[in-house]
C-alpha cells in the first residue's frame, strides 16, 4: 500500500531516488507450484511446492560473501521490479539468485504462505539473542508480531510482554 500511495522511499521524491521499477505485479510473500523448469535448474521437479525469500541477493557483494545476504545492497524484492513478478501474478519466474525452498506436501497451502513472514519473525528473534533472564516486549502483533511471539516463547524469556491497540490481535497473541 505504501508503494501504491507513492511513499518517497519507493517512488522517489524529497531527495530520495526511486527504488521500484514499474510496471510490476506485487506480492513478495508467496507459495506456488513449479509448472515449468529451466534447462539448467537442478533440485526442483514439476509439481514441487515452492517459496522463496522475499529478497533475492546478488551473491557477489561483501554481505552476500560473508553470509549476511539479507544485507545485500543491490538486492531485489519480488513484486517491486518489472523483471520479477510478485505472488499476485499468474506465473512467477524465480531467478537463479533466488533463495528457493520446497514446501512439504503435508503443509496446507494456506499455512505454507506464512513460511516467509514467520521466517522473518524468527530471524528477528534470533538476532535479539533472547535468553531466559530477558524481559521481551513485542509492540504490534500483526502477522510478523505473532510470529515473533511464537519464536520468542521458544527462547523461554523471563517475561514476554505484548502490546497492541487491537483487542482481537491481543487475543490471538495469547493463543500464540
Give the helix/strand class: alpha+beta
Beta-strand fraction estimate: 5-15%
Rg over C-alpha atoms, rounded to the nearest angstrom: 18 Å
**What's the SSE pattern?**
HEEEHEEHHEHEH
Major β-sheet strand ordering: 1-2-5
| E-strand count | 7
Query: What share of residues is helical?
Result: 25-40%
The number of helical runs is 6
What is the overall pLDDT average? 90
Uncertain stretches of 5 or more adjacent residues: none
Strand count, sense and barrel status of the largest sheet are: 3 strands, antiparallel
Instruction: Please report the distance between the alpha carbons of the first and last residues.
Output: 27 Å
Shape: globular
Features:
176 residues; alpha+beta; three-stranded antiparallel β-sheet; two-stranded antiparallel ribbon; 6 helices; globular
